[in-house]
Every structure is written in C-alpha cells, then in structure tokens.
Amino acid sequence: VQLQASGGGLVQSGGSLRLTCVASGSVSGDNAMGWYRQAPGKQREWVTYITADGRKNLASLAKGRFTISRDNAKNTIYLQMNNLQPEDTATYYCHYPPNTWGQGTLVTVSS
C-alpha cells in the first residue's frame, strides 16, 4: 500500500484546511485509516481515525474542530480542519495500519 497526502499549506489563525490522503496498491476495504501529526521538535501524535464502516475516534486536540471522513470507492480519507491555531502547525501524516505512512503534508498556521 502507498499513501499520498496533500492539502497542507499556510493559513492564518482561525482559518481552515482540508487534507486528503489517497491509498493505492493492495488496499483492504476493511482497514481503518487515520491521521497523525508531528510538530517541530516534538513526537508524532495521533489525531484521528475512521474505520471502514465510518466509525470515528478523535484525540482531544481535534474534537470540535477537526472532522475525518472517507470515500471507500476512492480509497481516500479526508481531514477537515477548522479554526486552526498556531499550535496546530505540524506535518500531518496519514496512516494505514499497521505500518504504512504517507509522506506527510505540512500545515503552517500563522498568528
């Protein structure tokens, strides 16, 4: 499986971005997929997951601001991020369990 993430960029505080991750190769329609992020100088942290049947789990940092969704027909997941804050600045990675990671897409939020 290969993952291609996109959608990062520079946004002002309070703005929004939508990240996309497309899975290709031997993709199982039964697999959950999700997002992690890693800020400069910090460890990678979990953001959110979505199962194949649409059940979602969100880290506290994402609740109320971020929404994950998926299109199984396209092997794609999305991360809608609203009310972004400077502390959300990080490289965002999509994850296909157990060990497949996308290349990351950089999100920079200016104050």
Explain what the structure shows:
This protein has 111 residues and is mainly β. It has strands spanning 2-6, 9-12, 17-24, 33-38, 45-50, 56-58, 66-71, 76-81, 90-96, 100-101, 105-110. The protein starts with a strand and ends with a strand. The protein is built from no helices and eleven strands. A hairpin with a 3-residue loop joins β9 and β10 (100-101). The strands form two sheets. Strands 2, 4, 5, 6, 9, 10 and 11 form a seven-stranded mixed β-sheet that branches. Strands 1-3-8-7 form a four-stranded antiparallel β-sheet, with no helix packed on it.
- N- to C-terminal distance: 37 Å
Which stretches are low in confidence, meaning pLDDT under 50 for 5 or more residues running? Answer: none
**What is the N-to-C order of secondary-structure elements (H for helix, E for strand)?**
EEEEEEEEEEE
Put simply, the count of helices is: 0
Helix proportion of residues, in percent?
under 10%
Average predicted confidence as pLDDT = 96
Alpha-beta classification: mainly beta
Q: What is the radius of gyration computed over CA atoms, rounded to a whole number of angstroms?
A: 13 Å
What global shape is seen?
globular
- Biggest sheet: strands, sense, closure? 7 strands, mixed
Strand content: over 45%
The total beta strand count reads 11
